[in-house]
TrEMBL record:
<dbReference type="InterPro" id="IPR045865">
    <property type="entry name" value="ACT-like_dom_sf"/>
</dbReference>
<protein>
    <recommendedName>
        <fullName>L-serine dehydratase</fullName>
        <ecNumber>4.3.1.17</ecNumber>
    </recommendedName>
</protein>
<dbReference type="Pfam" id="PF03315">
    <property type="entry name" value="SDH_beta"/>
</dbReference>
<dbReference type="InterPro" id="IPR051318">
    <property type="entry name" value="Fe-S_L-Ser"/>
</dbReference>
<comment type="similarity">
    <text>Belongs to the iron-sulfur dependent L-serine dehydratase family.</text>
</comment>
<dbReference type="GO" id="GO:0051539">
    <property type="term" value="F:4 iron, 4 sulfur cluster binding"/>
</dbReference>
<comment type="pathway">
    <text>Carbohydrate biosynthesis; gluconeogenesis.</text>
</comment>
<dbReference type="InterPro" id="IPR002912">
    <property type="entry name" value="ACT_dom"/>
</dbReference>
<dbReference type="GO" id="GO:0003941">
    <property type="term" value="F:L-serine ammonia-lyase activity"/>
</dbReference>
<dbReference type="GO" id="GO:0046872">
    <property type="term" value="F:metal ion binding"/>
</dbReference>
<dbReference type="InterPro" id="IPR004642">
    <property type="entry name" value="Ser_deHydtase_asu"/>
</dbReference>
<dbReference type="Pfam" id="PF03313">
    <property type="entry name" value="SDH_alpha"/>
</dbReference>
<keyword id="KW-0004">4Fe-4S</keyword>
<keyword id="KW-0479">Metal-binding</keyword>
<keyword id="KW-0411">Iron-sulfur</keyword>
<keyword id="KW-0312">Gluconeogenesis</keyword>
<dbReference type="InterPro" id="IPR005131">
    <property type="entry name" value="Ser_deHydtase_bsu"/>
</dbReference>
Length: 520
């Protein structure tokens, strides 16, 4: 499955008399080369993280690091208990669930991007609510998450799941559509009804702007998660009742992309327009940045875990998880302990990096931390303890995704330059390495090889990989000049050992250095 067209996905499910979740599982098994049990077990682990975030934020107040927001998940959960609400108390609890997850995210707690951190409350909210209803088993809930990932893959490939690229409709809207479709399949609805739920949910999120106050994933993000969790349930019920989306869901997704392209930059995660631009929004921004508040073509998405994941420390999948991965790639390419780093940020990264914790995330990645490491909030302290000096600047880097950064990382022996973009949902793409134009994500094991430009090197490298049973997913080569310095980047499907790198260097003597890169 390519997961680029919802109509084709629905038709295939109908032809095979299958569910969308089952198609996703089969595709994942084929891509990863793992057993069905292993694939499902990993998703079960993701759901545990989702549920833990819901329970944490509903059972007790969780405050954001800035002190600007917090406790509303617990507050609404308690209010729903008294039975005096206008909205059915059980339904109101789904909103409380979503607020809870979003508050854990704002507190830099552990959540699962679904498909992003800014929209991470919606899917867990409705699934934990479904589990608590007693109508569905945990096994059924876990399998249904594969439906959400399949739907999210179509949106990501056909449009965007990045607020910086398409506004909040790309994040909250996508998550609402994913949750609505998932609930329909969970309740026994047909693939066509799943598609209708996606269309109904998404077309009522069109035009939703991304206007985070002070650049934080707090206002209005947290409340939007709560309200749209209820919207997802309503859209699911409409589809199950037989209501159709008159505009086909694929066309709705296409329109979402068009609307996002037409949206002004000020309304795409820059923290300049919308609610962020109000007098109160600007006042809060000054307070926070002055430290006066309390508290400490679209990317090719293929895997279920590019949509349901990564498991990460909040608050933003693009600005935190993606930034950690970019920093981590730079560290691996340096191939030694760093002593100095300069981060040059552009676009949304430049405008909101302090509020989103992008500075902490980039530093954490350079220090070798992963997206789920609890040390991310303390990255500056860890950098000081490790003797790592750093600076942040803003500059225009070219016609790249708004969340782009140039990392200039220095060790005792050398400096590397990595220009990379965070595309949404934690997915990243290197644009340039040491000013050579390369594109790779680090999601697959990636060999980065420095060598001399000589006839037959690529053929020899390919032959050795073939003999060792290693499949090449993508390969690129750039050189400074004929017979000069060159770099080859080779993405592979296999997990390899460090001993294999030594073997390659021994059998191809003109290799100067070989580094294995993979994001954590």
């Amino acid at each position: 499955m390519s997961f680029t067209n919802l109509k084709e996905l629905i038709e295939r499910a109908e032809q095979e008399k299958s569910t969308i979740s089952e198609l996703m599982i089969k595709t994942e098994v084929q891509q990863k080369g793992c057993s069905r049990e292993t694939i499902i077990e990993k998703m079960a682990e993701q759901f545990i993280v989702m549920e833990e975030a819901v329970r944490r934020g509903t059972k007790s107040p969780v405050m954001s690091r800035t002190g600007l927001t917090g406790g509303d998940g617990n507050r609404l959960y308690q209010y729903a208990q008294n039975g005096n609400s206008f909205v059915n108390a059980k339904t109101l609890k789904v909103a409380a669930n979503a607020l809870a997850v979003s508050e854990v995210n704002a507190a830099m707690g552990r959540i699962v991007a679904t498909p992003t951190a800014g929209s991470a409350g919606i899917l867990p909210a409705v699934l934990v609510h479904a589990l608590d209803s007693g109508k569905f088993t945990r096994k059924q809930i876990v399998q249904s998450i594969f439906t959400a990932s399949a739907l999210g893959l179509v949106v990501a490939n056909k449009a965007s799941i990045s607020g910086a690229a398409g506004g909040c409709q790309a994040e909250i809207g996508s998550a609402t559509a994913m949750a609505a479709g998932t609930l329909v399949e969970l309740a026994g609805g047909t693939p066509m009804q799943v598609g209708n739920a996606v269309g109904i949910a998404l077309k009522n999120s069109l035009g939703l702007v991304c206007d985070p106050v002070a650049g934080l994933v707090e206002i209005p993000c947290i409340i939007r998660n709560g309200l749209h969790a209820i919207t997802a349930q309503a859209a699911a019920d409409m589809a199950l009742a037989g209501i159709a989306s008159v505009i086909p869901p694929d066309e709705v997704i296409h329109v979402m992309h068009e609307v996002g392209q037409q949206m002004p930059e000020s309304l795409r995660e820059t923290g300049k327009g919308g609610l962020a631009g109000t007098p109160t929004g600007q006042k809060l921004k000054k307070q926070i940045l002055n430290g006066k508040t309390s508290g400490s073509g679209p990317a090719k998405y293929q895997s279920a875990y590019e949509i349901i994941g990564p498991v990460m420390v909040g608050p933003s999948s693009s600005h935190t998880a993606g930034a950690v991965r970019i920093g981590n790639i730079a560290r691996q390419l340096l191939n030694e302990n760093p002593i100095y780093v300069k981060f040059s940020l552009m676009g949304s990264f430049a405008e909101t990096y302090q509020g989103h914790g992008t500075d902490l995330a980039l530093l954490a990645g350079v220090l070798g931390l992963s997206t789920m490491d609890d040390g991310i909030p303390n990255a500056k302290k860890i950098a000081e303890e490790n003797g790592l000096q750093y600076e942040f600047t803003k500059r225009v880097l070219g016609s790249y995704h708004p969340n782009t950064v140039l990392v200039e990382l220095t060790g005792d022996a050398r400096t590397v330059k990595v220009l990379a973009s965070s595309l949404g949902g934690g997915k990243v793409e290197v644009q340039e390495f040491d000013e050579y134009p390369f594109k790779f994500s680090g999601e697959r094991p990636t060999l980065v090889i420095r060598h001399s430009d000589q006839k037959g090197v690529i053929a020899e490298l390919s032959d050795i990989l073939y003999q060792k049973g290693i499949n090449i997913a993508r390969m690129a080569n750039e050189r400074s000049k004929i017979n000069g310095a060159a770099i080859t980047v080779c993405e592979i499907d296999n997990i390899i050992e460090d001993t294999f790198l030594s073997l390659l260097k021994r059998e191809i003597p003109i290799i100067d250095e070989i580094v294995l890169v993979q994001t954590k």
